[in-house]
Design goal:
single chain; alpha+beta; Arc Repressor Mutant, subunit A; Dna Ligase, domain 1; 2 domains; 3-stranded antiparallel β-sheet; globular
């Protein structure tokens, strides 16, 4: 379910860009605003097709770009050649674990990571403007996801903090 504020943000972006709220754009936005988790453009197109609303991939990508522009969605590239989208509003800060084999994405929040990041940025007198944590792993046992979340063994760890002084 989407809020009036979310629709207003989307409609304002369309107005600024001098674009109309077409039926396909409306349907994509409705579907996206009601979703949970991480979906690719292909998955969104497939969901709409199953719902009886076929839309072109170009329309999906253009609408996703508009939803990002108005701040309602974030996109993530987990290095597997496909970008996924998730709601940016109404969510607590979190980071991601992802499997480089099956593409499964798990969200986590670890206060200790945040504390260390704050200490480092203060030490170097930086003001963080963007921060993200991505940890990739090749799951050897896909049934043991809970064990992976709390384990120390990581195959690939990627960390990036974009900072502005």
């Amino acid at each position: 379910m989407s809020s009036r504020r979310e629709w207003t943000a989307f409609e304002d972006t369309l107005r600024r860009r001098r674009l109309r709220l077409t039926a396909p754009r409306r349907r994509i936005a409705e579907r996206m605003l009601s979703m949970r988790g991480h979906l690719s453009a292909d998955e969104i197109q497939d969901l709409l097709k199953r719902d009886g609303t076929p839309v072109s991939k170009a329309t999906v990508y253009r609408t996703l770009s508009l939803l990002k522009e108005c701040g309602l969605f974030d996109s993530h590239d987990f290095g597997n050649g496909r970008k996924v989208y998730e709601k940016a509003v109404g969510r607590a800060h979190h980071d991601h674990l992802f499997c480089v084999s099956c593409g499964k994405v798990l969200e986590f929040h670890e206060p200790r990571i945040e504390e260390i990041q704050d200490q480092v940025t203060r030490r170097f007198r930086f003001s963080p403007v963007l921060s993200y944590q991505k940890v990739a792993r090749l799951y050897l046992q896909l049934d043991a996801l809970d064990d992976v979340l709390y384990g120390d063994e990581l195959v690939i760890a990627a960390r990036a903090v974009a900072l502005a002084s």
